[in-house]
Amino acid sequence: MIKTRAIVLHRFPYSDSSFIVKALTEECGVVSFIVKGGKRKESPFKGALDPLALSEVVFRENPNTELQFIKEATLIEWRKNLREDLLALAKAQAMAEIVLRYAPQGVPLQAEFQLLEKATAALDCPPETPKQNIFARWLLDTCDVWGYNLDLGTCCRCGKNLDTAPADFVPETGAIICKECLGVTTPRVRPETSRDLWNLLKGNNLESPQFVENALLAYLRHHIGFHKELKSLQFLNDTRKLFGC
Ligand SMILES: [Zn+2]
To answer: How far apart are CA 69 and CA 61, in angstroms?
Structure first.
């Protein structure tokens, strides 16, 4: 019997009364659970298996099947503030889908669990808390955990440590280029992206987070070699438009 904290990544109906829940567990990586009777109003799991909830689950690991039967699920944190902030929700869903689609299967993912737990907790802070760095920081840390470390502080051409924002960034390779090395060449990214890569490195608040988020997403997806559309990114883009960013 395994007892572990879990973050619900995805939930979909399986039959008239059942769900399949895919969760990132602290101990066993991504696990798929079948939740019989989960759709019923008197389900013992209540909000514990809602997408993005943090819960403690108990299950017996059966190595012969991909779908595990869940015995208990106790809600630790439902993330009420996050659910009431559409942009925070869109970013949390994007993180959950990236983990679900890209993370290695069948192995423990403790670092991924910690990063996602920290980021969803930060997005769940009260509305007035600054949240513009959270998704970009998570992308940067996730690149690191998955072996695609990005050194935002060093020019890839001359090797100099930057003392100001880079002049360019190449999302396909992750190359950071200083002003001297870029010379008269037109930069690939907007000035906002370069400035916010620097802000991210220095821990300052991002000014236009969507550009640096998109640059880091492009970098990550290029390295993972996965180009299928992510539904959550479409939702994130629609939400950004709604909020004029
Ligand atoms: Zn240089």
So the answer is: 8
Structure tokens belonging to residue 62: 């059966």
Ligand 1 centroid to Cα of residue 92, in Å, is 35
User: How many Å lie between the centroid of ligand 1 and the Cα of residue 193?
Assistant: 18
pLDDT one-digit tens code per residue, 22-81: 999 999 999 999 998 777 777 778 799 999 999 999 999 888 888 999 999 999 999 999
- Return the DSSP state at 199: H
Q: Please give the distance, rounded to the nearest whole angstrom, from the Cα atom of residue 187 to the centre of ligand 1.
A: 13
Range of the domain at 216: 81-242
Residue with tokens 């950071």: 176
182 and 64 in a common domain: no
Q: How far is the CA of 199 from the centre of ligand 1 (A)?
A: 19
- Paired tokens of 130: 């600054």
